[in-house]
Amino acid sequence: MSELTAWERQLLVREKTRPTVNDYIPLIFDEFYELHGDRLYGDDAAIMGGIGRIDDQPVTILAEVKGRDLNENKKTNFAMPHPEGYRKALRLAKQAEKFHRPVVCFIDTPGAFCGIEAEERGQGEAIARNIMEFMRLKTPVISVVLGEGGSGGALALGVCDKLGMLENALYSVISPRGCASILWKDASREHEACDVLHITAEDMVKFGVAEGIIEEPNGSAEHDVYKTAENIKDFLVDSLKENLRKDIDILLEQRYTKFRKIGEFTE
Amino acid sequence: MSNIFNVVSKRFNSGSSEPENKNNVKNNIPDNLFFKCPRCRTVVPRYTYRDVNRVCPNCNYHGRLTAQQRIALTVDKGSFREIDGGMMSRDPIDFPDYTKKQQALRESTGLKDAIITGEARIRRIPVMIGVMDTRYMMASMGSVVGEKITRTIETATRKKMPVIMFTASGGARMQEGIVSLMQMAKTSGAVAKHNEAGQLYITVLTDPTTGGVTASFASLGDIIIAEPKVLVGFAGRRVIEGTIKQRLPDDFQLAEFLLDKGFVDMIVERKRMRSVLSHLMTLHGYKKIED
Predict the structure, then answer these.
(1) A172, A151 contact by CB (below 8 A)
(2) Domain boundaries, chain B
(3) Are the beta carbons of A173 and B150 separated by less than 8 Å?
(4) Quick one: average pLDDT of A234-258?
(5) A179, B191: Cβ pair inside 8 Å?
(6) CB B56 within 8 A of CB B41
(7) How far apart are CA B53 and CA B206, in angstroms?
(8) Are A262 and B182 a contacting pair at CB < 8 A?
(9) What is the rounded distance in angstroms from the CA atom of residue B268 to the CA atom of residue B276?
(10) Half-sphere exposure for A147 (CA within 13 Å, toward CB)
């Protein structure tokens, strides 16, 4: 279990040296063919999609892509997707359903992009539709948060049968910075907001949002990307096996129930 | 006139007229006597504004209503039966001052949380309805809002009824952390099942509908209606302005903008809402109850 505070983890997952999905894919999957475009408007590099093979099982892969340098980040918009990214993800998820192929999602985003074009092309609608369609997608969906799980932008790939969190990965309803500026009118207090928001992997397991925590070797994925990839692969293979065995109606009912029961209230 | 004079005298007498200004006309008029339209900045007496159901007489901006006002305007008199009226949120992440803030709001608004749900009739057609109320933490969605919406839709699925959801929200409720985010999945899941059961789901976007609510059940209506000039968007205006470092046009993210971009089916004025809703339901085969 990570011994870092939430704030230390936040700094760690933002590090340039933190491995990204592009580092992991060749180590986890035997083959990978990238598929482009949403068939509606464009191709958003912030979300990569494709077909691959893991442990002899064909899967559809959807991933939010952080760049490893400034050039890559220019292309992938620092992993902040536009509506086209989410629509591409949905197109490929529907394709996976058609061919009875499970879906593997990698989440790593500060959040969905906030900009004029994103609003004009329906950022809210795109995320909403993904959430709804993934809830009823008739094939197993396994998601892993690699670094940042930023709000609705993460949830759009996070409606799944099983969610794994890398040990230091975070998942939050609002960026700690945003929270600090609303709560204390002072964005620089984001380190405090990190604790207040309860955003660690352990918190996610506690709230029933995640089912597994994936170990990072010696406390950080960057120490050994091979071993981290192996751990992610083990989680995926086990989760796929477990969920591929299930009757599809039972799978969907369990997926519905997973989210249905989250909420804390009195009557 | 006196305002102009004050500005002028202030300029010329620099500072000396300041204390006098403090006690002048402006501050002696209680704010709530007048309504200033947030769209066209026209000022009208509040009673005028109230008389026209909170619609700006100048630009037709449809202002915010309390949930009770909305219900009274929309459903048949005496037909509303509230469900889950006593549901209250816990404090899942021990957020600073959350419990205290809620207690204060419960006292000042009489609400238990940011939504009222129930069963009602509109022109004698039975319908499940939810109405959000911005007075309660900007109608943000936490456990209670998520659970009540989900139950409302699930009941409609079971009873083969239409759902009408009047949305307004600042988004997911930060104070409940990740639990709030998951309400987006929960409510959207309920919409999916209602969909599969072949039932009609209408969302009416009211001022303002933003964030996690736009990115979940609000955008999933079979038919999406918006009131004139209301604000609808995913990201906040200031957030976008901060990103692009320039001012956005005034009509950005207004209902008319969304209609133009293809994300709203129609803009309907408040006075026609009952009529439009009932006709749409009739067109989908829902029957009036005779009694």
Answers:
(1) yes
(2) 22-61, 62-283
(3) no
(4) 98
(5) no
(6) no
(7) 14
(8) yes
(9) 8
(10) 26
CATH code given to domain B62-283: 3.90.226.10
Report the helix count and the strand count for chain B, using DSSP H and E: 12, 10
Q: B182 and A171: CB-CB below 8 Å?
A: no
Residue of chain B whose Cα is closest to the Cα of A135: B189
The residue ranking higher by pLDDT, B197 or B33, is: B197
CA B267 vs CA A126, B203, B283, B285: distances in Å: 21, 12, 18, 23
Which residues does chain A have within 8 Å of residue B249's beta carbon, measured at their own beta carbons? none
CATH class held by domain A6-260 = alpha beta
| Residue where the block lists tokens 């071993």 | A227
Radius of gyration of chain B (CA): 21
Q: What are phi and psi of A249, to 5 degrees?
A: -65, -40
pLDDT band per the 50, 70, 90 thresholds, residue B31: low
Neighboring chain B residues of A158 at a CB cutoff of 8 Å: 185
A122/B263 CB distance under 8 A = yes
For residue B8, the model assigns a pLDDT of 38
Kindly state the greatest CA–CA separation across chain B: 73
Nearest CB among A119, A135, A264 relative to B185 is that of A135
CB-CB under 8 Å, B184 with A131: yes
Check pLDDT > 70 for residue B6: no
Chain A hits for B147, CB-CB cut-off 8 Å, are 263, 265
Say if strands A212-214 and B223-226 run parallel, antiparallel, or are unpaired. Answer: unpaired
Tokens of B112: 């238990």
Could you tell me if B156 and B199 are in contact, meaning their C-beta atoms sit under 8 angstroms apart?
Answer: yes
| Bridge partners, A170 (sequence order) | A148
- Span A131-159, average pLDDT: 98
Element housing B127 (H / E): strand B125-132
What mean pLDDT comes out for the span A71-87?
97
End-to-end CA distance of chain A: 36
Tabulate helix, strand, coil % of chain A (nearest 5).
50, 20, 30
Amino acid B32: pLDDT: 79
Q: What is the mean pLDDT of residues B126-144?
A: 98
Question: How is residue B231 annotated by DSSP?
Answer: B
What region, left, alpha or beta, does residue B57 occupy, with left being phi > 0 and alpha being psi -120 to 50 degrees? alpha
